[in-house]
Amino acid sequence: MGAKYHQSGSFLGSLMGHHKEAIVYSLAKLWQSNLSTWITLAAIAIALCLPASLHLLLQNLKSLTDDKREVPTISLFIKQDISEQRARDRGELLEELSQIDKVVLVPRDEALKDFRKITGFAETLETLDENPLPHVLVVTPHINLIGNPEEDMEKLAAKLNTYPEIDLVQMDIEWVRRLRSILRIAERAIFVISALLALTVLLVIGNTIRLNIENRKEEIKVSKLIGATAAYIRRPFLYTGVWYGLFGGVMSLVLVHLALLWFVGPVNELARLYGSTFVISGLSVATTFFILFASSLLGLVGAWIAVGSHLRSTKLEE
Fold first, then answer.
1. What are the tens digits of pLDDT across the range 249-292?
2. Scanning 5, 8, 140, 234, which has its CA 20 to 30 A from the CA of 272?
3. Which of 31, 55, 5 is closest to 243 using CA atoms?
């Protein structure tokens, strides 16, 4: 039992030593080929920068709904026999709900004045004994485009329709539907662009590793002659691919945030001119780690394909 444990420990120690050696060796090779390394990293960073920037743009567009004037409204038509004060009281109670941001009362007299201004029926309205228009509560709901705003608004409208003062509920939901459709198209476009650029990164890293293999072909042959396994030969190239992907991802994040800093001033000025509290946001921690993980994985896969192709070709030659 002790002998088996000792053998297992020796194997793990040897494996860890090989990995450490491959890590140091691959980093040293990257540092030695300074110019070519930076060119490759720049190509990877630019390819990764575009989908990350588009994702960031989409997230900021979604967050624009925090500007309450951009949110669609729900009009609550009050029953004719309800007084203005009672309608105002109901509006104040509704404003306390978490699903509602603001409630504005439009009294029937004010609505009649506006109606006279925008229509040609002023003389006809004078012949009426009483104002036919009801009081209206204009409700601005709190919605989130990342979830399901249409369903949220429909649930809120159904809830509002249960109050005894309310005669009719009318939703301005077409705005939400159109914006949701635009955002869905944008999300799919970003997915397609990301997939194509991920393939580009895969090809760039794969071709770079293939060139590295060609430059070290004689070294690989000598390693095989002294008994090196395929895993031993493959390992430093795989780490090289991971480094290309990881460092390229880091560079892409730096580029995205530099571009973001360049836009902060003009965006804040535009928001101030429109009286908005909108603040441009950067990539979240989760998105940052996902980009680094995805870029490293692309580097690993690209290197694996390139090394695997070389190992298969050398076996066929033999």
1. 999 999 998 988 888 888 778 777 766 667 778 888 898 999 99
2. 140
3. 31
Beta bridge partners of 169: 76
Closest CA to 244 of 295, 199, 301, 207: 295
Instruction: Tell me which of 5-9, 152-156, 181-185, 243-247 is least confident.
Output: 5-9
168, β-bridge pairs:
77
Indicate the pairing of strand 100-106 with strand 74-78.
Answer: unpaired
DSSP 171: E
Between CA 87 and CA 84 the distance in angstroms is: 5
Query: What is the reported pLDDT for 3?
Result: 42
Rg, Å, the chain Cα set: 32
pLDDT number for residue 250: 93
Is 73-172 a CATH 3.30.70.3040 domain?
A: yes
Predicted TM-score (pTM) of this structure: 0.63
Find tokens 């990301």 and name the residue: 194
Burial of residue 53 (CB within 10 Å: 0-12, 13-18, 19+) is middle
Taking alpha carbons only, the member of 223, 295, 214 closest to residue 253 is 295
Quick count: other Cβ atoms within 10 Å of Cβ 196? Answer: 12
CA dist 153 and 157 (Å) reads 6
| Alpha-carbon dihedral angle through residues 7, 12, 16, 19, given to the nearest 10 degrees | 100
Q: Confirm if 59 and 263 have CB atoms less than 8 A apart.
A: no
Closest CA to 139 of 115, 157, 163, 165: 157
Mean pLDDT of the chain: 78
Lowest mean pLDDT among 67-71, 177-181, 249-253: 67-71
